[in-house]
Structures are given as structure tokens and as C-alpha cells.
Amino acid sequence: MTERNAMLESKLGTYLKAAPNICQICYITADIDKAVAAFAATNDTGPFHMLRHNMVPHAQGGFAETHVALAWIGNMQIEIIQPLGGRDEIYRDYLPKDGADMAFHHFCVRAATWEEFADRKAHFQALGCEIGFARESGPYRTFYADTRKMFGHFVEYVWLEDEGMLTMNGKIPAY
Questions:
Q1: Is residue 173 situated within a structural domain?
Q2: What is the CATH number of the domain that holds 74?
Q3: DSSP type of residue 57
Q4: Residue 174 domain-assigned?
Q5: What DSSP string runs through 77-92?
Q6: What is the number of other CB atoms lying within 10 angstroms of the CB of residue 97?
Q7: Centroid of chain to Cα 117
Q8: Is residue 90 within 8 Å of residue 64, measured between CB atoms?
Q9: Considering its fold, how many domains does the chain have in total?
Q10: Which of 59, 68, 70, 130 is the most buried (most CB within 10 A)?
């Protein structure tokens, strides 16, 4: 096995170990209302919880302004993000270029403990993955590892201090 193949196998193993704890799939769109309507019609769901003009902290400073739509479908949370401005390149660069309503952006893995969360962040940094977004305070912590060179998309990790954050204390609908 070549050194490169060993490195890729190591990275892929880490990637696949996350699969049992994937809790969210995220899509990017240029029109959140159209994307939510399309997703709801295709998947037979009702409305999503909407966060309009949401300010997302960029890891290198500044904020991205976004609209965000959230819903649970079974055990999977669906997130749809529309970039609006500011440091939104982490989203804007993923806007569909082929006329589609949405494009895949990332999946999110829920860390069981604070220690696991911190370990995963350090692990991705050691692999050379830039941290493109990070929320380091409050009732939940999250980061995006830029795994685009390896997998073509971001990987998000989240740690929740309070179980109520899973549904934003009941605000996110479940179908």
C-alpha cells in the first residue's frame, strides 16, 4: 500500500466511523422558500422552522447572513440554508449551478461528549482541514471541517449541552 493510499484509508476510516451519529443533512439554495416547498412536496412534509437573517460566525472573523430552514424527518434533521451576504462564501460557493433548487453542503455528526467534540476538531485540524465555521460558546458548540478536498463537502460536528437544543425546545417540526 502506498503512503498516499494509507493516508486516504486513514481519513476514510475516520469519516465512516461518524456514520452512526449523523443527525443532519444540509442543502444550500438561492431561494429558501422555493427549496422548502420543493422538499416538503417531494417528502410529504409540512412547514419547516424558519430562521430569517440568521448571523453565523465565520471561524476567521465576521459573520455570514443566512436564512435557515429546519425540520426533522424521522431521525434525520434537514437543514436548508440560503446565503444572503457577509462572510457567506462557505455557503455561496455551493449554490446550485445547474438550475437545481438545492445542492448538498454537509452532514452533521453529533458528538456524545464534550471530549469527543474537542477530539474530533483536533483530529480534523491535524489532517490539515481548515475549520470554516465554529460556534464556541452557548448551549451548543459546532464546527465545520473543510473536507472538500477529500470528500467534496464539509463535515459538521455538534455537541449539545441540553437535549432541548435538538428541537430548539420544540420549535423544529418533526415528520
A1: no
A2: 3.10.180.10
A3: E
A4: no
A5: EEEEEEEEEES-HHHH
A6: 7
A7: 15
A8: yes
A9: 1
A10: 70
13-36: average pLDDT: 84
The pLDDT score that the predictor gives to residue 112 is: 87
Domain region containing 23 = 3-167
pLDDT at residue number 8:
46
Task: Report, in angstroms and rounded to the nearest whole number, the Rg of the chain calculated over CA atoms.
Answer: 16
131-165 tens-digit pLDDT: 988 887 777 889 999 999 988 999 999 998 876 56
How does DSSP classify residue 58? B
Q: Where do we find the cell 449541552?
A: 161
pTM for this model (two decimals): 0.86
Q: Would you call 37 exposed, middle or buried from its count of C-beta atoms within 10 A (0-12, 13-18, 19+)?
A: middle
Dist CA 13 CA 121 (whole Å): 16
Q: 30: helix, coil or strand? A: coil
List beta partners, residue 77: 24, 72
- For residue 75, tell me if it sits in a domain: yes
For the chain, how many helices (H) and strands (E)? 5, 8
Domain assignment present for residue 48? The answer is yes
Provide the 8-state DSSP code for 45.
-
CA 103 to chain centre: 12
Cell of 2: 502506498
Which pLDDT does position 3 carry in this prediction?
65
Beta strands 103-110 and 49-57, pairing class: unpaired
| Single-letter code of the amino acid located at 93 | D
